[in-house]
Design brief:
With 415 residues, the chain is mostly beta strands. The protein has helices spanning 77-80, 207-212, 381-402, 411-414; strands spanning 5-8, 14-17, 22-24, 27-28, 34-44, 50-60, 66-74, 81-87, 95-101, 107-118, 123-132, 137-138, 142-143, 150-154, 159-163, 169-180, 185-196, 200-201, 224-229, 233-239, 242-243, 248-251, 255-260, 271-281, 286-289, 292-298, 308-317, 323-328, 334-341, 350-361, 367-373. The protein has four helices and 31 strands. The strands form seven sheets. An eight-stranded mixed β-sheet has the order 21-20-24-17-16-27-30-29, with no helix packed on it. A six-stranded mixed β-sheet has the order 2-7-10-9-4-3, with no helix packed on it. It is flat. It comes from Danaus chrysippus (African queen).
């Protein structure tokens, strides 16, 4: 067995290149004028995710300042890359742009733009962070209820086989619905399909042994914690059988902690499906100046620690009458066609903005910004519709009671 944290100083998933010239927007050259003096790399494989942090020191051996360099992910590792970022010595994030280099078709490159150019004979220290999902393989692929889970981690130069009973949970699909109201509330609902992606359960499952022996099923998932915003209220959590009341909610200073406990423990290959919903006040996320509005919210929220999501679909329902919709994302997403959503008292339908992203991890818990125009006078539309409907109803009742639909006239009218 090897420890779950390995600290090494050799290149593995990420190769380092330095680019001093840019041919076009998405094509770069590799320069040999920059020398890498030292790389201190830390690989964290204690959970189901592989997290690599590299502290890179390089110097400019050329004659012209260097304004950017390249990070590269090659081979099969690029298919498992969920997030990559870079920070300078002041711990400030640097801008990354995906690019290409001729002659390296099997490599995915990211151009890192420095805030200050590196002059000739000068050095700079940069920290790179990368997160890989599904890079740990259960080995063996099936275990009994009593066995520990062993996983295998391969690179060209290194192979690790060790015990890892951390929750190997994968959200196969998460549909996040954000419904915006100008009456002071934003409703959020998430439909979550989750699967235990670790070693599959081999042999029968004994609930008696599982309940009597706390060491039974060490790789199974009994429960996990989800964090909601501190202002979340009216929280509900249900599956196909109805509300799940065995889970607990704890209100903290900066968040609401949900201890979610499925109806049955999750072993390797087992799945669950549930819906989580809550409300938050709109003044914390919605800003406006006149008829111009800005919605600033997270594209995805915390589901569980070291989460990995195969597919995220986020839908934003805006008030009816919203126009000039513009949205900015902190990372690359696939924008789906806009649609309309109809509910009570709607006439034209509410605009729905939809986007999706694959391979999502905790590093993607970032805010998007959505701007739109909404004439504030339209807020009177629904109250006026209600008043008009009630007025028409009362008018019909008044007319009805005053009309005489009888065939025979009363005796006192015949005289």
């Amino acid at each position: 067995m090897l420890p779950a944290m390995a600290k090494i100083q050799f290149f593995a998933f990420i190769l380092l290149y330095v680019a001093s010239n840019c041919i076009s927007v998405n094509v770069d050259n590799i320069s040999s004028d920059v020398r890498i003096k030292n790389v201190d790399r830390s690989i964290d494989i204690s959970s189901q995710l592989v997290k690599i942090s590299s502290k890179i020191t390089f110097e400019n051996a050329g004659k012209v300042p260097v304004k950017q360099f390249l990070l590269a992910v090659e081979g099969a590792a690029k298919n498992n890359l969920a997030f990559i970022g870079a920070r300078d010595s002041n711990n400030k994030d640097l801008r990354l742009v995906e690019t290409t280099v001729k002659g390296h078709d099997n490599v995915k490159f990211y151009r890192v733009e420095l805030k200050e150019p590196v002059n000739a004979a000068a050095s700079v220290v940069i920290t790179s962070d990368a997160v890989f999902s599904k890079a740990l393989l259960p080995h063996p692929t099936a275990i009994t209820q009593q066995e520990d889970q062993l996983v295998k981690y391969n690179k060209k130069e290194l192979s690790l086989h060790y015990k890892n009973n951390s929750p190997f949970l994968t959200v196969t699909r998460l549909e996040r619905l954000i419904e915006v109201s100008h009456w002071g509330n934003i409703a959020i609902e998430e439909i979550i399909e989750i699967e235990h992606s670790g070693a599959k359960l081999k042999g029968p499952f004994s609930r008696y042994d599982y309940q009597q022996d706390h060491h039974s099923g060490p790789a199974s998932v009994r429960s996990y914690k989800t964090l909601l915003p501190a202002s979340a209220s009216d929280v509900y959590y249900r599956d196909t059988n109805g509300n799940i009341s065995t889970s607990n909610m704890k209100v903290k200073k900066d968040s609401v902690e949900l201890d979610l406990r499925p109806r049955y423990p999750l072993f390797g290959g087992w799945r669950s499906h549930y819906t989580l919903g809550y409300n938050v006040p709109s003044y914390e996320y919605l800003y406006h100046s006149g008829n111009e509005y800005l919605l600033k919210m997270r594209a995805v929220d915390h589901v569980f620690d070291d989460m990995q999501i195969d597919e995220l679909v986020t839908k934003i329902i805006l008030p009816e009458g919203s126009t000039n919709i513009k949205i900015n994302f902190p990372f690359a997403v696939t924008r789906l066609p806009d649609s309309l959503h109809y509910t009570y008292l709607d006439t034209k339908g509410r605009p729905v903005i939809t986007f999706k992203k694959s391979n999502v991890v905790e590093n993607h818990i970032q805010d998007f910004q959505l701007r739109y125009t909404f004439p504030r006078i339209l807020m009177l539309q629904e109250p006026l519709l209600v008043v008009g409907f009630l007025y028409a109803l009362f008018l019909c009742v008044i007319v009805y009671v005053r009309l005489d639909f009888s065939i025979h006239k009363p005796e006192h009218l015949k005289e």
